[in-house]
Amino acid sequence: MPPLLPPLPLVASALAGVFLDRLLGEPRRFHPLVGFGRCADRVEQATRNGAPGHPFFNRLRGLLGWLLLVLPAVLTAAWLGRQAWGWAADAVLLYLALGARSLRQHGEQIAGDLAAGDLDAARTHVGWIVSRDTSTLDEEGVARAAVESVLENGNDAVFGALFWFLVAGGAGAVLYRLANTLDAMWGYRDPRRVYFGWAAARIDDVLNLIPARLTALTFAVLGNTRNALACWRQQAAAWSSPNAGPVIAAGAGALSVQLGGAAMYHGQLEQRPRVGAGDTANAAHIRAALALVERGLWLWLACAGLLAVAVSHA
Quick check: bond before 246 cis, omega within 30? Predict the structure, then answer.
């Protein structure tokens, strides 16, 4: 916990940030992450040398670019948190880092499209939250993509941000969210960024090491526990991402649904490992995944509150 912020005020700020997200959702205009993304593009243009460029020096340039973008924002957030009104600043920073309401809105839109039999609309809307080609997906493919995105973004846009907030206040939430954004922008292993994006990808892996496993455990506790733990243990390691693997596998097991399989990315067909066990994905599984994330969020806040009370009486 931050030394200048007692546990109970920190949890109160977390609750305020979650309620702000629920009330307001993501800013529709002047979203800080949109501006951050534009800055990241400019920093990449100024620092990356070649595509892919030199294996060592472009990695070093990528790390320098990451520090230039993230460090000033984190230091500013830490300064804000130390002011007399720091609890309010922290709540706003967590609100800006969270994406729970946006995730729920996107998921409900896709589930509603499928329930109404509007496959074209479902393909369009799922394309807003996944990077794969959605133009030829059938109903099961749309539902599978949506469930995978809800589970993975449950970690990236909800639990990961909340974890680092509870560790380091608003500065922790800013650190996590900006690192996650740079991983999404620079971390792809394409010819242009295979070296330059190395630092962004590795830092995001480290920051997600604990939150991803706590997210997987949350899914297991709130869903089909035995199935979730078995899928996590037996299937997670086959997934390419060390952190997405436990989240997707445990989430699929908790929902008793089959995920993974073939997906088209940038014109290339990729065969990803099958995870989960049970039914093929449908609209009901999208809503079940959203409910899993929602219940998990309130479970985390309840546990944080109980821990804060225990610490205050220790």
Answer: no
Question: How many CA atoms are closer than 13 Å to the CA of 286, on its beta-carbon side?
Answer: 26
Positive or negative, the CA dihedral 231, 233, 235, 237 is: positive
The amino acid at residue 174 is: V
For the cut 70, the answer to whether the pLDDT of residue 3 exceeds it is: no
- In the chain, count H helices and then E strands: 12, 3
C-alpha separations of 37 from 14, 31, 178, 180, 295 in Å: 25, 10, 9, 12, 31
pLDDT in tens, 43-99: 999 999 998 999 999 999 999 999 999 999 999 999 999 999 999 999 999 999 999
